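Good morning C.,

I know you're traveling, so I'll keep this short. The sequence:
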Amino acid sequence: MLKNSSGSRPKIVLIACGSFSPPTPMHFRMFEIAKDYFKIHQSHEVIGGIVSPTHDSYGKKGLVNGKHRLTMLSLGLRSSNWIKLSDWEINQCHWNRTKVVLEYHQNALNNFINSRNIDDECVENEHLWFPHKSLLQKDLIKIKLLCGADLLESFAIPGLWKEEDIEDILINHGIVVITRSGSNPETIIFESDILSKYRKHIVLITNFVPNDVSSTKVRTLLRRGESVKYLLDDSVIQYIEKWGLYNSTTSESMDESDNNSQLTPSPSLKDKSTFARVISQTNSNVFCCGQSGQPMKTPGKAIKLCIDDVKEVSTKKIKMHK
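The tokens, ready to paste straight into the viewer:
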């Protein structure tokens, strides 16, 4: 059994990054599966869970406005007393790589612990995704990326991830992969030099009660006007119906893969026009915040800009993002 300086098990917080458009019960079920695993094996103490939806400028088909996704996630998480919603990623000026998202949340937690302001309600209110302050003691916390098995496969796709990002995620955070019974993720790891090198930072957990419900399948049913009863939380269904999300008049053809936990990958971005292209594929309005050239350390207030304005500054933005 691993122990930290105080003699207790190391504390970890699980984070799932993705589109969540819409969020399904399986997105949240993964947290429970992982928490049970660590409880049974007594290797780590899971003190919290975070859901971090990706920025609107990710440019994925079927990705509804972040305001809607935040609301649907809030509705879907009402019954959980330990999985929290973080709006940091969605409130930034631009899409961020997964590495940056993990780094921000881990640093925010540990800076809070190091400050010893455990009773500082102002800080706690600023980060509503924090675990309960009674769990934030002197031992530092590691954020671990929670995801489906397709993450391992995505690491092997040339050019999709920066190799240094993969190393950073594995070394400084680690990943917890929920796999299906009968799958063989060890083969994926064996065939990848970088995954094999950092194998000890990968936790594989088999889900013996599979659930094949995905956001893509749900959107398909909604687009066709068919029922999604018992596939989503009732309150999420009601919200979708209220705003007319994912119906045939508002949805594009959605043929992309949509796994249990979609990631915000770390592409090499060799072409500096990538950001402008992604922006141009979104709706006619995007959201931006903060000052040019200044990295955002805390969520900023979004303001709406015309797409033409964004195109004019896209080249400067790319340099700043990198």
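Safe travels,
E.
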